[in-house]
Amino acid sequence: MDNTLSDRQIDVLSGIGPQRARLFGRLGIKKVGDALYYLPYRYEDRSKISDICDLECGSAATVKGRVVSSLIRSSGRRRFSIVEVVIGDGTGCVKAKWYNQPFMQKNFPAGKEVVLSGNIPDVPFSGGILEIENPEYEDATPDGAPGIHTGRVVPVYRLTDGISGKQFRRIMSEVIRSCSEELYDFVPEEITARYGLPSLRESILQVHFPGPGTPLDLLNKGTSGYHKRLSFNELFLFELGMTLAKKKRRKRKRSPLHCRGNMMKEVLERLPFVLTAAQKRTVDEILGDMKRPYPMHRLLQGDVGSGKTVVALLAMLHAVECGCQAALMAPTEILAEQHFFNIRRMIEPLGIRCGLLNSGSGKESRDAVTSGDTPVIIGTHALIQEGVVFRDLGLAVIDEQHKFGVMQRSLLRKKGMNPHLLVMTATPIPRSLALTLYGDLDSSVVDEFPPGRKPVVTKVVDAVEKKLVYEILNKEVGEGRQAYVVYPAIEDSEKSDLKSAQQGKEALERIFPVFRIGLIHGKMKTMERENVMNSFRDGQIDILVSTTVIEVGVDTPGATVMVVVHAERFGLAQLHQLRGRVGRGSYQSYCLLIAYGPLGGDAGRRLAIMEESADGFRLAEEDLSIRGPGDFLGVRQAGMPDLNLADILRDADILEIAKKEAVSLLEESPDLREYPFLKRSLEKFWNGRDDFYKAG
Ligand code: ADP
Ligand code: MG
Asked: Which ligand does the CA of 399 lie closest to?
């Protein structure tokens, strides 16, 4: 199948030189075949040819007629010209106008039959003849068949500067005409037959240049039968990969971890609280997994503040008592450091050593991991670097999993011999997304908060009313509580007029000269940050000014106020995470979202939802509907292949079918030996993520 036109670089096409090839590259189209899957983002119905006498102002229309006259009008100013072409169809005449494109005139010799499609402005002038401004035009086809740009439902593509919609559409029509013969479908025929799916070739033709018959609204929603067929292909590859990964994992072996649970018991006795029922249940589920002869692969979900850390700690202690090492990886240095200090405080009295591995760690810390001196290791990405060797990693925990990618998950897992894996996330995910993102994981949910939490009072404050925020800060801090003030930037910059943490701190120092104000951000050294975090935790800092480095996981129960400056700049998930930093103790907490208006639609909606709801699940769904699944949670960062055609929300029904068919095909042909082309397509789709597509 190589050496086909689809496999060649786009510039083999006539009309595409190096410069255009670069433009196409910008759209992600490198090879000719890529263009086949570059779908229109909407369609315009230009199939109805109107009689000129029926045209109305303020509408869009397509007309067909012969050129009556054409001329170039130059206006007084130099280099300003208008091409005016009058065409008539026997029912009347209409005038088309193009500005500053004098070369246009040669397209319209008198008597030629053309089709025009465009908007008729609301106000007619020039002596009663209607005008169409800047219409798309093309020569009428001899037999009245639909053209490329007119006389049909036409595709509208996302473009990049330097190429017009018409040029692009023409090239696409050429690509599709010349490549569709080569299209070879990797989906076994019995599957497409079972669901009556149209052929791949037909589907590609139809999604680009739909024939009559397909309703415009289905096309625009991307749910025509042809669109569904293309989504199916993509989701089928997706589900095959997921299923293979799961099967592969089930085949791994390890010796079950059994112990008496003394370490756990001791830590439980020292905790200043008792576990919630949800925590107990999830601990049991996890221990159950670890006692099996194959590795655990579990997602622990729980809203911000539900108490996931202690669940992870207990699992880690189980592994350690069984003689293995346990590692916890966190996405930021601050969070890793915090986990380290908390966990060390709890386990060192039992004689269990705990190590920290972050970007600043030296050989000594790594050696302690290798020798097994530190059975419990907390760290950042530093944990998965090459030089880090564990003596015997039995359990790998990933905190705030959505901040990591699948690749990083797999790298950490590879640090041990089939270790158990527990990934945690505070971001609740709608089921359909969970299926795709974490389809290869079992899941547990901490669906209950520790007792005595008061809901955080959330208020959106217009920047001009900042005084209100100062009053609350004054009162709360005056009574001995603490506050976070979060800014979107570290320092003021000439490039933006965003308020910054550095300047914010100085302002707060002027307003509250008696309060102790600290600053923390990502550019500080680990040691400096550690000092600041420690001082805040110990109550030596009253107000902690920060960037979003404190977004995830940070836990200081004495803090009762979270102020977010430029809240309109933050996403819902982020705001919810930030709010989760307060409301952790027994005092009433406040989340004050300072907005610099005027607020655009989405920003206004986000902030209103924050005021209304504290339910992470509800927020996640709203987030999804505002942003769409592509951006949600950084699905991309998660290291999953991009879904270019399918939309897992819209195509949930197809996802189900794809999953069912993937599972049954792999039962019949576990290594896909009988389907070499499918196998290759699978490898290409999962590009390098070999956990997913390599059978066996
Ligand atoms: P998250 O799930 O967001 O990671 P944490 O593990 O940071 O939440 O826990 C939030 C806070 O709740 C911590 O201060 C923790 O000590 C406390 N906590 C956890 N479990 C309980 C419990 N059962 N009772 C009371 N407080 C708890
Ligand atoms: Mg946490």
From this structure: 2
